[in-house]
């Protein structure tokens, strides 16, 4: 930062973070803008995933309850459906095997269950992948924002020493601006990184529980399918 510009800010008695950003060194300014964008991006991802993961788990649970209560026919279960209910998609993935289970011969029993298992596994992976799409940005922001802020800090401190050398003066008017820039970059880096790391860990746990729930329902479907193929209608 130009020391004269910083002095003008102080003399006007209207110092603020916005004015600090506008008067900052171009490199530090680029760092601060990048961190602001990263922070906004991370909160956008957090908001979207908060509703997406919660909604997906709720809908899958609703279908599972309907299935065990004998109301699965309330859902459209044809393969290739556009439903956003993961539970319904799991059942749709084995709907053909479910229909054929009543008439399958004993020699085809194992093959039918194996086909269903592969289809369910692929569907679970696809559904978890769809819901988790985007949370990698939180990991990137959480791991990189601190270092980006640190770069701005180093640059601001370097400018402070350069100003001391150029002005041959160690007064606050000379070093205050660059030091303020350095501290602001550090703080903004932490502001961007900390929420990103916290919510990345939270969503990772939520996704693991979501995947476990779908896996458990898949295994229940396989058991019911196997019994249906062996014993006829349940």
What would you note in describing this structure?
The chain has one domain (26-231). Helix 4 (86-93) runs antiparallel to helix 6. Helix content is 81%, strand content 0%. It is an all-alpha fold and 234 residues long. The longest helix is centred in the C-terminal third of the chain and has 60 residues, at 172-231. The protein is built from 8 helices and no strands. The protein has helices at 3-12, 17-22, 26-68, 86-93, 95-100, 109-132, 136-167, 172-231.
Q: What is the strand and helix layout of this fold?
A:
Elements: H1 3-12, H2 17-22, H3 26-68, H4 86-93, H5 95-100, H6 109-132, H7 136-167, H8 172-231
Helix pairs in contact: 1-8, 3-7, 3-8, 4-6, 4-8, 6-8, 7-8
Shape: rod-shaped
The class by helix and strand makeup works out as mainly alpha
Number of strands: 0
One letter per element, helices H and strands E, the order comes to HHHHHHHH
How many domains? The number is 1
Q: Helix fraction?
A: over 70%
Poorly predicted parts = 3-15
Cα end-to-end separation: 77 Å
DSSP helical segment count = 8
Most strands sheet: none
User: Can you give the mean pLDDT?
Assistant: 79
Output the radius of gyration. Answer: 29 Å
Strand content bin: under 5%
Key descriptive features of the protein:
234 residues, mainly alpha, 81% helix, 0% strand
